[in-house]
Each structure stands twice: as C-alpha cells, then as structure tokens.
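May I ask for a sample protein chain and its fold as tokens?
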Amino acid sequence: MNEIVEKLKQGETMLYPTDTILGLGCDAKNADAIEKIYKIKDRPSSKSLIILVDSPKMLQDIVEVPELAWDLIDLNEKPLTIIYDNPKGLPESLIAEDNTIAIRLTDDLFCKKIIGKLNGPIVSTSANLSGQPSPKVFSEVSKEILERVDFVVQETKIFVPQSTASTIIKLSLDNEVKVIRE
C-alpha cells in the first residue's frame, strides 16, 4: 500500500480495482497525472472524470453537499456517483465546463486505504480507451492501456467486479436531480 501511494504522489497512473469496475486512477490533485489519464484513454479533456473520496469530511472539503445527497447515498443499493456544483481545491482539468465535479464516496476498503494514505481523492475512470467497452476482468484490458499506464496494482489481476459502472446523478444546490446513468 505504501508503495502504491508513493507512486501516486510522484504523479504516476495506476490500473486498479475499484468499488465497481477496473479503473485507471491517479492523485486527483496532480494536474500532470490527470493529463496522463486523458492520454492513456485517448479521451478528450472536455469529458470530465470521476473522483473517489473516502469520507464525508473529504467530500465536504471539496463541495457543498446538499442535504438530499446524504439520503441518496444512504438509500442507494449500488455505488452512486453524484455530480456536484462548484468544486474547490481541485485542478481545472478535473472540473467540467459547467463548474461541476463527479464524486463517489466509496465504501470499498482497498480504495479507502489508498485515499486515506494519500490524504486526498483519487481519479476513477474505467480502464478502457475512450468509446470502447469497460473491461470486466483483467484479461479484457487492452494492450494499449497496459502499455500506457505507469503501474498495475497486483489485486487488479484477480479482481471480480461487484457490479457494472456506478449510477450517476447530477444534484444541484437547489436539490434538482437529473439521472445521467442508471
């Protein structure tokens, strides 16, 4: 775990198991590492990325959390990513053109350990080239992704996804809810 976190602090990118599917990640506060994620995926920077946080406090340090969000997080049976307004303390490359950020408060112990030791959020995007299907198991990860990412977390090779990608909703400060992906 310490080696993973040290590599992230140095701006490296990783292929790792998340609470949903296999992901590509990096330190969410490192603009250079975020740029590398976009290049690894051949993804336009106009398409924003999701970040993972390990605690309500970390979430509240980044965004103003509408009261409704806590109910949605508690009631949702599968991982839930919420798009929040007006993030702070993050590189511009993570923030969407409409000044929003997609964040998931993860329950996954492995992800929580990385985030806790890093003392900050991590990027979490599917481990595929932009527009391609998300790999469900390690053997489905493309050769291009494996060649471009800085390192593979060992647990990734035995990871069995618990579900598909997370549900994504947009929640504005006035509690307007829009479902982006179920």
Q: What stands out?
A: DSSP finds six helices and nine strands in the chain. Residues 64 and 93 are 20 Å apart (CA to CA).
